């Protein structure tokens, strides 16, 4: 086997690290996308019995966006295993306690009832902001494209761009905001 073929084979079977930004993304759509990379479904050598999945680093999980009024209505169930140990927690309560937990639960559910699910979850690395440890940052070689484009915030735009932005109307000088 030539050196070139060995390199191609090594690159095919290597586990790569992918970066995914969760800013303003629906965690359930994101979970379906992340699942493909964790299981290795994007690789031509995928087979259900081999371990060809990659690592995924998800950042900014504190800035996820649930659709509609899911923050108030979505409930997560947990049971301690003891009598009377059942609890139901609203999404906004869980998100304030641990900003990475909703994304973790969404990916765990998206992986299905596979026997490899717990082992596959060890390749998912979640961070509530964009601060990634340098030992993990050194491994990242790819970025996963977000399904929804993130609009630019008005308070982060420079003064010149805001001033020159086309307006629909100008308020009169004697207009009072209530």
Question: What is the element layout, followed by pairings?
Answer:
Elements: H1 3-13, E1 17-21, H2 27-39, E2 55-59, H3 70-73, E3 75-79, E4 86-90, H4 91-97, H5 101-110, H6 117-121, E5 124-126, H7 134-137, E6 140-143, H8 159-164
Parallel strand pairs: 1-2, 1-6, 2-5
Antiparallel strand pairs: 3-4
Helix pairs in contact: 2-5
Structure description:
The protein has 178 residues and is an alpha/beta fold. It has one domain: Ribosomal protein L13 (Ribosomal Protein L13p, Chain: A, Alpha-Beta Complex), CATH 3.90.1180.10. The chain is 34% helix and 15% strand. The protein has eight helices and six strands; from the N terminus they run H-E-H-E-H-E-E-H-H-H-E-H-E-H. It has helices at 3-13, 27-39, 70-73, 91-97, 101-110, 117-121, 134-137, 159-164; strands at 17-21, 55-59, 75-79, 86-90, 124-126, 140-143. The strands form two sheets. A four-stranded parallel beta sheet has the order 5-2-1-6, covered by helices on one side. The protein has a two-stranded antiparallel ribbon with strand order 3-4. A hairpin with a 6-residue loop joins strand 3 (75-79) and strand 4. Helix 2 (27-39) crosses helix 5 (101-110). It starts with a helix and ends in a 14-residue tail after the last helix. The model has no long low-confidence stretch (mean pLDDT 93).
């Amino acid at each position: 086997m030539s050196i070139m073929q060995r390199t191609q084979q090594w690159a095919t079977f290597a586990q790569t690290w992918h970066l995914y930004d969760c800013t303003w993304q629906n965690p359930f759509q994101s979970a379906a996308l992340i699942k493909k990379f964790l299981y290795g479904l994007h690789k031509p050598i995928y087979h259900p019995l081999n371990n060809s999945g990659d690592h995924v680093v998800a950042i900014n999980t504190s800035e996820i966006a649930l659709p509609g009024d899911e923050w108030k209505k979505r409930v997560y169930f947990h049971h301690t295993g003891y009598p009377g140990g059942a609890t139901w927690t609203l999404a906004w309560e869980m998100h304030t306690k641990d900003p990475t937990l909703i994304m973790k639960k969404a990916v765990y559910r998206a992986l299905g009832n596979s026997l490899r699910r717990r082992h596959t979850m060890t390749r998912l690395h979640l961070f509530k902001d964009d601060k990634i440890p340098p030992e993990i940052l050194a491994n990242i070689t790819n970025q996963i494209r977000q399904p929804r484009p993130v609009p630019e915030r008005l308070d982060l735009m420079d003064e010149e761009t805001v001033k020159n932005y086309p307006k629909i109307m100008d308020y009169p000088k004697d207009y009072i905001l209530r």
